[in-house]
Design a protein that fits this description.
With 233 residues, the protein is α+β, with helices and mostly antiparallel strands. The chain has seven helices and six strands, in the order H-H-H-E-E-H-H-E-H-E-E-E-H. The protein has a domain at 99-232: GAF domain (Beta-Lactamase, 2-Layer Sandwich). The strands form two sheets. A four-stranded antiparallel beta sheet has the order 3-6-5-4, with helices on both faces. A hairpin with a 6-residue loop joins strand 1 (41-43) and strand 2 (50-52). Helix 4 (53-98) packs antiparallel against helix 5 (105-117) and helix 4 (53-98) runs parallel beside helix 7.
Length: 233
């Protein structure tokens, strides 16, 4: 019997995807063909030499372990740094609570920032204070624009010195490369209450108050300072 001549007997070539799919779907292949596994060699990323599959797997595991160790070291370091900040924040709060006369609060806030947190330059302005404090330096010098700007902030501003008016409250404003602006208001920092003051932190280091930094601790500091300085109103 003669076969039809129009039958296409060509077999499609096996692709890398076919091989990969076969190995994934046949996990016991290398158990049945252990000699194949031991004979496979691939290029090592270290020196471009040929190594066995077992060696390459070991290298990958070592690299993964090294990366995990680095992450653990970073976590331990960050944990230590955060614990230090928490301890300093606690001491700062205790200092403010220990102030008996409200007139001493602004100095306690500023001195604590300089001494405990090593902030080179600190300035504070509070408005809407009671008549007894209206003539104090901390109660003057904030324009309507600065007050409106403070009220517009619902979180600490961190970044480069861009010439904001509050920066001029710092003793050596021209030397400031980065700063943090902390609005002071009753309640949470992100509430709708208008601000009644602003705490300005300045540094000569451009990276000290970076725009990408976390502001959780600064938020808590702003709320602590707000609670303490509310006694001036």
């Amino acid at each position: 019997m003669t076969l039809p001549t129009n039958v296409n007997s060509a077999v499609p070539p096996i692709t890398e995807e076919d091989i990969a799919e076969f190995l994934v779907n046949t996990p016991d292949f290398f158990e049945r063909h252990a000699e194949v596994l031991s004979s496979i060699t691939i290029t090592s990323p270290h020196g471009h030499r040929a190594v066995s599959l077992h060696e390459r797997q070991a290298e990958m595991l070592r690299e993964k372990i090294k990366g995990l160790e680095q992450r653990i070291m970073d976590m331990v370091r960050y944990s230590g740094e955060n614990t230090g900040i928490v301890d300093k924040t606690h001491e700062w709060a205790c200092r403010m609570l220990a102030v008996r006369e409200p007139l001493g609060l602004p100095a306690a806030v500023e001195d604590g920032m300089r001494e405990l947190f090593d902030v080179p330059q600190v300035a504070l302005r509070v408005w809407g204070v009671s008549a007894a404090f209206a003539s104090e330096a901390f109660a003057s010098g904030a324009s309507d624009d600065a007050r409106a700007f403070a009220s517009s902030l619902t979180s600490p501003f961190c970044g480069a010195n861009m010439g904001f008016e509050p920066t001029q409250w710092l003793p050596q404003a021209a030397q400031v490369q980065s700063l943090a602006l902390l609005p002071l208001r009753e309640g949470a920092i992100d509430s709708t209450e208008p601000a009644f003051g602003m705490l300005v932190l300045g540094s000569h280091d451009p990276a000290r108050f970076d725009a990408a930094m976390g502001t959780d601790f600064l938020t808590r500091m702003a709320e602590l300072a707000s609670a303490a300085l509310a006694r001036l109103r």
